[in-house]
Amino acid sequence: MDEIIKEFLAATQQDLNQLEEELRAIQAGKTVSEEILNILSSSIHTIKHNAGFAHFQKTEALADGAQVLIDEISPVREQPPPELVGSLQACISAIQENLQSIATT
Q1: Among 82, 80, 61, which Cα is nearest to 71's?
Q2: Tens digits of per-residue pLDDT, 27-72?
Q3: In 3D, which of 52, 57, 44, 53 has the Cα closest to residue 17?
Q4: What is the rounded end-to-end Cα distance, in angstroms, of the chain?
Q5: Strands, E, within the chain: which ranges?
Q6: Which terminus of the chain faces fewer neighbouring Cβ atoms within 10 Å, N or C?
Q7: What would the pLDDT profile of 74-98 be if each residue is shown by its tens digit?
Q8: How many angstroms separate the CA atoms of 51 and 67, rounded?
Q9: In contact, 45 and 66? CB cutoff 8 Å
Q10: At CA 27, angle to CA 23 and CA 29, rounded to 5?
């Protein structure tokens, strides 16, 4: 496997882990602060940017969809609806599945 792809996979997994950790905290009742929104936005933006650089269009598109969902959280400034968090988690799961596919090809 190409070294750039290995680095992409490792960095993306790290960002996905951060996203999952924050989403679990939000589901447990953690207040969605500006700091949390910045972490979510930064992590997904990095995934989207790196996927574009590596020419993984499906990953980039999934990350773009997740970014749209994160932007829906921003104006709320309170507990986001469970459906929104669930949709964001589904995007993260789809990105993880896509990463597994990339890793095995």
Answers
A1: 80
A2: 898 888 888 889 999 999 999 999 999 999 999 999 999 999 999 8
A3: 44
A4: 8
A5: none
A6: C
A7: 666 678 889 999 999 999 999 999 9
A8: 14
A9: no
A10: 120
Structure tokens at 102: 């990339």
Q: Any idea what DSSP says for residue 78?
A: S
**Closest residue by Cα to residue 65 from 34, 86, 82, 44:** 44
> CA 21 to CA 17: how far, in whole Å?
6
Structure letter (DSSP) for residue 63: H
Query: Are 8 and 63 spatial neighbours (Cβ–Cβ below 8 Å)?
Result: no
Instruction: Kindly list the structural domains of the chain, giving each domain's residue range(s) and its CATH number in brackets, ordered by start.
Output: 3-104 (1.20.120.160)
Residue 79 · residue 51 · CB < 8 Å? no
Contact 88, 63 (CB under 8 A): no
Please name the residue that has the structure tokens 């986001």: 80
